[in-house]
Structures are given as structure tokens and as C-alpha cells.
Amino acid sequence: MLEVHQISKTYEGKPLLKDIAFKVDTGETVCLLGASGSGKSTLLRIIAGLEDADSGYVAFDDADLTATPAHLRDFGLVFQDYALFPHLNVNENVAFGLKMRRLPGSEITKRVANSLELVNLSGFGTRAVTDLSGGEQQRVALARALATRPRLLMFDEPLGALDRTLREDLLNELRSILHQTNIPAIYVTHDQEEAFTIADRVLILHNGEIIRAGTPADVWANPASAIVARFLGLGNVVEGTIGSESGEVETALGRFSVHCKNGHQKGDKVHLLVRPLSAEREPNSIRGTVMDVNFQQERFKVTLDNGLFVYLSTAPRLGEQIEAHVKVECLA
Q1: pLDDT under 70: residue ranges of the chain
Q2: Phi, psi (5° rounding) for residue 157?
Q3: Quick check: helix, strand or coil at residue 152?
Q4: CA–CA distance, 316 with 285 (Å, rounded to integer)
Q5: Are the C-beta atoms of 204 and 33 separated by less than 8 Å?
Q6: Where does the chain have alpha helices with state H?
Q7: What is the end-to-end Cα distance of the chain in Å, rounded?
Q8: CA-to-CA distance for 116 and 59, rounded, in angstroms?
Q9: How far apart are CA 270 and CA 329, in angstroms?
Q10: Domain 2-221 is found in CATH 3.40.50.300
């Protein structure tokens, strides 16, 4: 089990990571999700031993790794740019780490074949990596990482250079491989769709801090803050004030009836999440003039003149006045 203990790091005199702490259990895939500059790649490099923390430490199976150099941590890394050797063929790239460990030739041959089979590249061994597609090169990089049988796998934006369809296919295969091998993994990305597909648990980083952690379903259902709701694009985030009547919130867009579990009192400032999916049985509704209609995956995103948006199954006309019932939640 990997344990990250209170890692802090500054860059150019400014805090980049602030007391980061989490664990990764055997067979678990944890995703570090955050915007550019949130500190996620730096954190990965610290865990890998490629960079030092200002304070805190990383441990594996209760052993402090502070004094352990990167090449002795027995962690596998997969990067966005593949980091393959262009002058070596597929077999030679996958075998590189094994040769550095001075394993017997028969063992290297066996592991290379097994790793290529695992990533669906059997028969590609003698091909030049420069002749492969981006997706195939990334599979070779994954096979190379798997061949050493690492204690932990780490991925730094591994699919960022691939097109959408290929990215989706490889992401599903990668999740299957991780489950088959039972290797714990840390996956770094800024793409929430990737994160929610691959992860058993998501850690959202913002300004160097973990501001939300949980399963993908839990985080999606309960973002807990306006920052997380906005980052994930869960819907409209509206500011309001707790009204005099129980469960009522006054906003610039009108009054909403909300069951709040956060213990707010009359006059407290709150943020509301207005989910964009139309829900006829909900007591709250939004109204406005249709300013834009955009077709998105079997539904229409309808943007109103007040800045709110809602997804509808049929497209209204531009300039039409509409009303849609929506789910409204109180954020912390």
C-alpha cells in the first residue's frame, strides 16, 4: 500500500502543494484530477522519486522511501509522450528495463511476450516503434511498465495526445488491465471524463490542496463545493441567501426551495447547484429566453438569456420563452 504523508512543496516562493495526504490500496486506481497548475504532476514526480518535497514523505508497505532513489522504488511510469526509444523495436523497448535489472534472457523473452499479449500487441515485437500509431506506441509504453512487474503504476496524462475515440477505447482497456494485474495505480489527468472512467477513487486538487475525495459516483452526486461543481461542469452555480422561511433561498434569479443539510441560518450566503437536466417532478424551475441551442449527444443544451443552461430532449426556437423544472442543491 502506498501512503503519502503531508507532502508540501513550494515553487518560486509560492506554495504548490499543501499538506497532501492519501493512501492507495492494493488493486486500487486513484486519480489525481485538477486543472493545469494544480500541482498534480509535481505530486506524481515526488511520489516517483524524481523530485524532492519540502516536507512530508512517501511510504510503501510502511517503509519510508525518502532516501530511496527513483530507480529503486520499483514503480512504473507511463507518460503522455510515450518516452520510447526510436532506435529500438517493440521487443527491445519493452525489454529495456528488464535488461537493466540483468534478468536471464529466457525470463526477459517470457515477460516481454506476456506484457505485449496483455496490451493486445502480440506479433508486433519486431516492428519499429516509429511505424506505430499513437495508440500503439502508448500500448508499448504500458507493456514496458508492466514487464518489470512494478509495485505501483503511475500515469501522467497518458492519453492526452490521442483522439477521442482512441482515447476512450484505450481507457477501457487500461482499466481492464489494471483490474487483471491488481497493481495499485495513480492516474493524473485534467479530464474529468477520463478520471471518472478509470478511477476507483478521485482526488480533486485545487491550488495545491485536495478539496474533494471519493468514488466517482459519490463526487458526481455530491460535489460539496462550488469550486468542485464548476470544475466538473455539473450545472449552473448560483449565489443566494438563506431566506426567512425554512428551505427557501433568495437569488438574483428568483426564489428556490431547497432542502439544505449544511446547517445554514437565515441570512447566510450560500451557493446553489442547479442541475441542468429537466426534472418535471422537482418544485423548482428556471425561466428565460432561449439564446442558443447546441446539440450534444442525443440532447440539446439550451442556454438562456440569464446565463443558465438546461438539457432538453427537443430543441426550442431561438428567442422562445421557456420554463424547465430542475433539481436544485445547496452546496457547502
Answers
A1: 161, 245-246
A2: 45, 50
A3: strand
A4: 16
A5: yes
A6: 40-48, 90-100, 105-118, 134-147, 164-181, 192-198, 216-221, 226-232
A7: 32
A8: 30
A9: 10
A10: yes
Is the distance from CB of 251 to CB of 238 less than 8 angstroms?
Answer: yes
Could you tell me the three cell numbers for 33? 484530477
Cβ burial of 288 (10 Å; 0-12, 13-18, 19+) is buried
Confidence (pLDDT) at 266: 83
User: In the structure grid, which three cell numbers stand for residue 226, read together?
Assistant: 462550488
In this structure, how many other beta carbons lie within 10 angstroms of the beta carbon of residue 316? 17
Q: How far apart are CA 308 and CA 133, in angstroms?
A: 42
Instruction: Quote the pLDDT of residue 206.
Output: 94
Angle at 22 between CA 211 and CA 59, to 5 degrees: 150
Q: 131: which 3 cell numbers?
A: 511505424
Residue type, 46: I
Q: Kindly report the CA angle at 192 between 187 and 195, in degrees rounded to 5?
A: 30
DSSP result, 239-303: EEEE-SSTTEEEETTEEEE----S---TT-EEEEEEEEEE-TTSSEEEEEEEEEEEE-SSSEEEE
In the chain, DSSP finds a helix count (H) and a strand count (E) of 8, 18
Contacts of 182 (CB under 8 A, 6+ apart): 26, 27
Angle between helices 164-181 and 134-147 (to 10 degrees): 20
Q: Specify the pLDDT at position 100.
A: 87
Domain locations in the chain as residue ranges: 2-221, 235-331
Q: Are residues 14 and 42 in contact, defined by beta-carbon separation less than 8 angstroms?
A: no
Angle, CA of 108, 110 and 112, to the nearest 5°? 65
